[in-house]
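Reminder: ligand-aware prediction takes two inputs, not one.
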Amino acid sequence: MAVTLEDIDLYNPDVYVDAPPFEALAYLRRECPVFRQEMPDGTFYWAVLKHHDVVEVARNPLVFSAEVGGVVLEDQPPEQLEQTKNMLLMMDPPRHSTLRKNVYPHFRPRQIQQLEVRIREICRDLVAKGIEMGDVEFVHDLAALVPSEVFGEMMGIPPEDRPKINRWAEIMTGGQDPEVNPDGYTATSGNDGSMAMAVYGIEFAAARRGRDGEDLGDLLLATKVDGQPMTDLEFGYFFVQLVTAGNDTTRTMISSGLHALLEHPEQLTRLRADRSLIPNAVEEILRYANPLHYFRRTTTADATVGGQEIKAGEKLAMIYTSANRDEDVFAAPDEFDVGRVPNPQLSFGIGEHYCLGVHLARLEGRIWLEELLDSGVTIEMTGEPRRQRSNLNNALKSLPVRLTPA
Ligand code: HEM
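Here is what comes back for the chain with protoporphyrin IX containing FE:
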């Protein structure tokens, strides 16, 4: 059946359960590239669908603010919004630029590269664990453990605390899926994960301060912003930011990546035959199965995007899932091609808030694939994968597979 504008609902999380609405997105890129989408709460947003329009919005943080309304589409209650403004992702310049400039040195390629040996050990152990188990639910049994172990080691988080941090992160980001977060987004039961995690981060800071150690936790605690070290509270927010931004996204990159390779066995064969394609394959996985569908901005002044007038105070969503398949930028955008070059995918955003963890995420993606392929293991799906019910997270919540040793 042909798509019509009236039928399209990009907000409804149910629409994303089987697969992202690629057909509707392609139709909108042609017919209405800045699309007015109503929301159930009576508000609306502008879905920005073309690659160059997403870039333009992301590169103008003063007109398209992350701070005024946050980065998710649902308007948060004022007190919650006030708290999120303390996170890097939800700050506007100049506050954003100051904090970012000070923490960035710890996330530079040279710094991150030093983790290679340890990340490889973690990935190798996880592949061995998977082979020993044979039948695994890949998302939680293996993929989730890569970022959680890596981040835990980087920060110096005790191993016994890592599962609960993972769980809080999953509750926070799985808000629209009743199976992941039974209490919903703005839970009043105290089960929204962020508070528990912030408290953990604050206590972590208080216990560690002055230790003069070398891990990322110590380095961040010693980092000065405007000449002053971060307070325990500021560190707590930054901690929440790192965990929420880094854990589920990386888990999704690894699990959706395996899924894409299993669905395209000829690409897996190609990769097995030519390991030099692995960095490309990581980029293609990120383009083809971007872990996040969108991030929001709110206009601070009247603006025009893609020819569409937008009034001050209105909200927009930069739809990465659409921009990554823009036929004006990518040849055969619906094809999964591990040799794709160039690949200007927008899965890490671009501009002011460009992902701080990008080098870490790429390193984890590359090493994971190298270790998986080096093991020679054969992998087959043993059941239907299940996707998260979410218009924000483009994620699998389960991927049953069998690993058979070489
Ligand atoms: C595949 C994995 C990842 C994906 C797809 C991803 C995606 C993104 C995106 C789209 C943004 C930009 C948001 C915007 O423009 O509003 C972002 C920002 C951010 N990411 Fe990532 N991310 C990943 C991994 C990580 C990791 C591993 C970390 C940290 C350990 C991290 C930390 C951050 C932080 C702190 C920001 C905010 C940067 C700022 O506002 O200046 N991310 N990420």
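The first strand starts at residue 34 and ends at 38. DSSP finds 16 helices and 14 strands in the chain. We will return to this case in the review session.
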